[in-house]
């Protein structure tokens, strides 16, 4: 039997029992829709997690520490790592060397210190940290009030919401979180605050006499013999923005509350606590950093860059270490969602078997005539498999359309709820093209498998007995 004749005959048979075949096709569509809906939810949640991690600035970042500055740190370094006293210092030379590694975009030092801050004649204390220009792309600064720093050397500051509340005199009660961005926090933008900090001077000075000593200047000698002086300085900063998200969520209680341009902070030559090495003060010309943040071009290059940094004698940690477990979770989630979504498709497969078995009983005489005219068992089998494939194709296409509609409705409903909660909208549903093609192909395969038994049964009919059937 020719292919064209086979297709025409299958289409005619499907049209003759249009109601029953339509209901069977609808059942396949509902099964495919449930499968697409379940898998789309898992894919959407995984993409949402990936977007959030990427926008956080941590997904492509490696945190580098030295045994001299942060012993232990809870991270895994080299197995044969040197003792802390012999560890290589994390200084400017090490930063430059890391910045020149392949696939590295930048190596940013962690500059932070606790400072006395004066605002409207009132004193406050807060952790101050420097931010590079690349931090502009972080998710924490998406919904902030105001604008990011105008330049990397501008005398400007961005406040975290908790410190903004403190400046405004807002004291949340025990167990309550800080207030959201509002008109009060907006009023801080454009105001000035005064930053008081200790400046480290590398110039050698004479030991001060009792008559000339004062609280603004002290002197000492570093481990390498160079004289240093510490001067108390003040810097006026203009508040340019307030953010209600924490750009340093991984730091916990050590996170900063005031952020300033990194280059401007480096130009201040602030005396940092990272000068503590092995319990001794070290004010050398190349100060040590407590940690470095190394950004790579692509998250897939994290592991190779980490290996290169560890060979330099430093400890490393990246969010990739945590996301391995997260990706495993989503893989298991997708598997279970796919299994539950396939249950409805299994029910639809039983409907295909029932439909084609009933068709055999109704068309026994027709099958007998076909065999009497020269149709082989294989031709009869192909005819029934073709009918099953057509129902699978129609049901698969219908199911994908229904799954897409379900996703749109859930997205609209979810975003409506998020807006009511003053939260940004999210896309929780994702139907990639591979899922569309895979769902339709899966529906066709399941339909043909379901039609295999009726096709074999029809092919085995005795033409003489089939022609006698009334």
List keywords for this structure.
single chain; 470 residues; alpha+beta; six-stranded mixed β-barrel; four-stranded antiparallel beta sheet; 18% strand
The chain-level structural class is alpha+beta
Spans where pLDDT lies below 50 across 5 or more residues: 70-80, 204-215, 220-225, 275-284
What is the domain total for the residues? 2
What's the overall average pLDDT, rounded?
75
Task: Note the main sheet.
Answer: 6 strands, mixed, barrel
Explain what this protein looks like in three dimensions:
The two termini are 26 Å apart. The chain is built from 13 helices and 14 strands. α2 runs antiparallel to α8 and α2 (18-55) runs antiparallel to α11. The protein has two domains: 3-54 and 326-468, no CATH class; 58-319, no CATH class. The radius of gyration is 35 Å and the shape is elongated. It is α+β, with helices and mostly antiparallel strands and 470 residues long. The chain has helices spanning 3-16, 18-55, 92-99, 161-168, 183-186, 262-268, 302-311, 320-362, 364-372, 377-420, 433-450, 452-459, 463-468, and strands spanning 61-65, 104-109, 112-119, 122-131, 145-146, 156-160, 192-201, 217-221, 227-243, 258-261, 276-277, 280-281, 292-296, 315-318. The strands form three sheets. A six-stranded mixed beta barrel has the order 3-4-10-6-9-7.
